Amino acid sequence: MESEAHFPTTSSDPDTPRAATTAINRTLHLLLSDDADSQIQAAKEIRRLTKTSQRCRRQLSPAVGPLVSMLRLDSVDSSEAALLALLNLAVKDEKDWRNKVNIVASGALEPIIGFLQSQNSNMQEYATAALLTLSASTINKPTISAAGSIPLLVEILRYGSPQARVDAVLALYNLSTYSDNISIILETKPIPSIVDLLKTCKKSSKTAEKCSALIESLVGFEDGRTALTSEEGGVLAVVEVLENGSVQSREHAVGALLTMCQSDRCKYREPILREGVIPGLLELTVQGTPKSQSKAQTLLRLLRDSPHPRSELQPDTLENIVSNLISQIDSEEQSRKAKKMLAEMVQVSMEQSLRHLQQRAVVCTPTDLPINNCTSEVSLK
User: Fold this and answer.
1) Number of neighbours of residue 319 by Cβ within 10 angstroms
2) Which ranges constitute the DSSP H helices of 35-147?
3) Which of 30, 119, 178, 227 is least crowded, fewest Cβ atoms below 10 Å from its Cβ?
4) Whole-number Å distance between alpha carbons of 168 and 173
5) pTM for this predicted structure
């Protein structure tokens, strides 16, 4: 799911369709006025009308062109009113991205990207939020990156206000889902700033999820892997998401660590083990999504002393792999956690095996017994 920005407005939608239509017509007429104050008033009214009404967003789509023209005026008041109106026109536009695409096609990117470099912190925030919303459209992604937005978004991620930094990383995530953009993002060296934001945000938040997703994409390149391990606390931040993140965040986190270990086990095994990843991986093998469980099990196999099966005397079971890993953990606390998780994992495994046997006992009926003696929930076709 792509991310968008949302801005509060001052009042609610009109009560009736007739009132809305009247307000829309009046506002469009006012927007086409030659008077700057009237245009600003109209832009503010568009922002109000489009707060929650998708119908108003559709009916006010003709306002896009005049609002984009206002962005180019040498007036902060006009630019701010127009940008906020465009932002509300663009949100919740998932069906066909009509307004999002129309805004970009009307030439809004040039002034918006200019606002990213503004000394006015409000305009910088609004411009970042606008790119976040516009980049949710698949059609817009290559155009936005070609306009030179990525290096500026990374600058906002480094030095912007707290809200602008969050919106910047979400916009970068949106852009990263267009594969050609990943190498462009990597060239701007964003990982230290992503890690910094990841360290400070709540690990179960959407911000952490998008940071983790970006990192997973970027460590697919050697420069990305080197940057993450070179950044103090970089691998640890990913491990913390693996332990405490949302379901989706944990999947991205284990995916990032697995990509690193698969690319060069000798190089990345120790940095990953050093950050106490084992308890979190064990928990994922029990409680994660099917994809997370599979990745966690694969990573556990790569993290043990030898990546090859032991011998017939010590079967290559997950329990044996983990026992081997626990014996290598120096930290008493980490070892205690890992042993506890291993016990829980074994318990869950036993319970699953017992349920499987019980299900088989119900389904399988001996041939020498009448079928009527066996109760079944499955209807015969």
Assistant:
1) 12
2) 36-49, 54-59, 64-71, 76-90, 98-105, 109-116, 121-134, 141-146
3) 119
4) 9
5) 0.79
